[in-house]
């Protein structure tokens, strides 16, 4: 039975990537993360080209602070009218300069914006599920820091060395080394994020190498989703059980890795 509700743009429908879709009762959710400027958006763009729906936390974070929203009012209450542009929208570079140089202010901003982002993400995933998508990717820079990694099927980390990361960040944002470093230091180091990874996409090379990495990742994904989806569809309680055991296994594995690391250091 096909679900009839379609909320998504047909061009991006994951049935394009998984053409043998008959029915869908589960939606494997993948968490895509990395350090700032390691290439999450570049990977997301490639995934979208392959028909995979992507929920973009940065994009949502911009929407939930538009004038008139609750978060917008709360931000003005905390940071004052000085962080507004003449047209009333947030002056993002100005707010960025404040929060990336002051952890307590960043925490205040996060406490306002993150709950709204999480609600919107859950809603978007639900819409994809209702429209019958077999897989959905959450592109979340702070996937690990925010604990969202606990709730996704697989964590995919886009990696490049800290030095390449810094160079790309400075070039993209046309920023000084100091400004780029302050943004970089607001996140867990990329090497620590690797510890949470089920899959790593190495973006140390050029765009063509990245495409090859994404292609091989998608081949693996197609294999895995095909298998788990069939089991969940044939025996729904088994699907639920496998989801719970997978989440539990992830925590155990992470706990073991951390204990091993503590034992070594
Ligand atoms: C501080 C703000 C206004 C700066 O806006 P700006 O347009 O300059 O940057 P943008 O939003 O495009 O973010 C660029 C990158 O910075 C990093 N980043 C953004 N916010 C944070 C944060 N609170 N902590 C650490 N890194 C962050 C991410 O890697 C992100 O991809 C903005 O980043 C913001 O509102 N941040 C708080 C919300 C948030 O955490 N967003 C990240 C996704 S949930
Ligand atoms: N393989 C690559 N080779 C050269 N440049 C790249 C490569 N991948 C990404 N870039 C460039 O590096 C910059 C950062 O990439 P991107 O915006 O995809 O990172 P991001 O992880 O999404 O960053 P953010 O955390 O800020 O959202 C961009 O200017 C992008 O064009």
Automatic annotation (TrEMBL):
PROSITE patterns: DPCK. GO terms for cellular component: cytoplasm. Gene3D superfamilies: P-loop containing nucleotide triphosphate hydrolases. CDD domains: DPCK. GO terms for molecular function: ATP binding; dephospho-CoA kinase activity. Coiled coil: none annotated. Keywords: ATP-binding, Membrane, Nucleotide-binding, Transmembrane, Transmembrane helix. It comes from the Eukaryota. Belongs to the CoaE family. This is Dephospho-CoA kinase. It comes from Bondarzewia mesenterica.
């Amino acid at each position: 039975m096909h679900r009839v509700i379609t909320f998504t743009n047909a061009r991006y429908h994951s049935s394009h990537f998984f053409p043998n879709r008959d029915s869908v009762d589960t939606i494997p959710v993948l968490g895509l993360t990395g350090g700032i400027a390691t290439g999450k958006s570049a990977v997301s763009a490639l995934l979208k080209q392959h028909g995979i729906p992507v929920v973009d936390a940065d994009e949502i974070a911009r929407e939930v602070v538009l004038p008139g929203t609750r978060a917008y009012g709360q931000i003005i209450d905390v940071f004052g009218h000085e962080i507004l542009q003449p047209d009333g929208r947030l002056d993002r570079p100005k707010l960025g300069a404040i929060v990336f140089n002051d952890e307590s202010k960043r925490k205040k901003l996060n406490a306002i914006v993150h709950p709204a982002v999480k609600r919107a993400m859950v809603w978007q995933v639900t819409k994809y599920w209702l429209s019958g998508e077999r897989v959905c990717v959450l592109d979340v820079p702070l996937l690990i820091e925010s604990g969202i990694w606990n709730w996704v099927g697989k964590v995919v980390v886009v990696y490049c060395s800290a030095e390449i990361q810094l160079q790309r960040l400075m070039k993209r944002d046309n920023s000084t080394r100091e400004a780029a470093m302050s943004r970089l230091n607001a996140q867990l180091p990329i090497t620590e994020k690797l510890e949470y990874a089920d899959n790593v996409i190495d973006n140390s090379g050029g765009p063509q190498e990245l495409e090859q990495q994404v292609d091989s990742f998608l081949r693996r994904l197609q294999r895995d989703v095909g298998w788990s989806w069939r089991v969940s569809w044939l025996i729904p309680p088994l699907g639920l059980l496998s989801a719970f055991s997978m989440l539990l296994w992830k925590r155990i594995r992470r706990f073991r890795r951390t204990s091993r690391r503590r034992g070594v250091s």
